[in-house]
Specification:
Structural class: mainly alpha
Low-confidence stretches: none
Oligomer: single chain
Largest sheet: none
Number of strands: 0
Radius of gyration: 28 Å
Distance between the termini: 71 Å
Length: about 80
């Protein structure tokens, strides 16, 4: 069975280790937000780039003019 002194040392150690881990998490979060803000200021967009294929290029003007709806375009997709 452990005595009280040893348990207190473990508690102190884990409290300090937890505080350091929380500090690191906060630093990472702050750097991430700063990086995203910098990218946004530079005009960059986050996320995957949209891939436009030839079929979409042909259908897009029809949707814009109102000839077909987006739902119809999806159903007619081959």
């Amino acid at each position: 069975m452990r005595n009280g002194t040893r348990d207190l040392r473990f508690r102190l150690f884990f409290s300090i280790a937890g505080a350091v881990a929380q500090f690191e998490r906060d630093v990472i979060q702050q750097r991430t937000l700063e990086g995203l803000a910098g990218a946004q200021a530079a005009g960059k967009k986050a996320g995957p780039k949209v891939q436009v294929n030839a079929q979409w290029s042909a259908i897009r003007p029809q949707i814009a003019s109102g000839e077909i709806s987006i739902g119809q375009a999806g159903r007619n997709r081959s």
